[in-house]
Amino acid sequence: MNLKDVLAAKGHRVVTVSAKSSVADAIRAMHAAKVGAVMVPDAEGCPVGIFTERDVVRLYADGDRDFDTLAVEARMTCSVVLGRLSMSVDEALGVMTERRFRHLPVVEEGKLLGVVSIGDLVKVKLNETAQEAQALRAYIAS
Ligand code: AMP
Q1: How much is the pTM?
Q2: Which domain holds residue 120?
Q3: Which residues line ligand 1 (CB under 6 A)?
């Protein structure tokens, strides 16, 4: 399976905020949409930044508590690692594990097509494992 299949199953919704949004607004957007990350797109919709729950934890631990006035652009991660539709689930899991993050925006020809989380990919792997176990049981029984 590749990221095209994952997005076809989970949908293409992307939760975005503008770079000038406050951190408080980004937290509210994540909470309302029940996601752990928001994308900050440029005028063409390509991600220029990502801001996640982990960044909120870091801000709080650093003593930065003025979430209503602090802009997301001041604390988002700008060097966003992107996935492509043709990327396999295993490859995406490898990148996320190695780079120690849990969100991968999928971009093709400069267009943001969706976001896959590590949870989405673990779900695919669990399904594959269950199907393989079922096939093996059927083979042994036959
Ligand atoms: P996460 O585990 O996804 O909550 O993110 C952990 C850290 O990595 C946070 O500082 C995020 O801003 C950053 N991050 C998350 N996803 C990506 C990505 N695809 N590319 C670059 N940085 C990311």
Answers
A1: 0.93
A2: 3-141
A3: 36-37, 50-55, 77, 80-81, 101-104
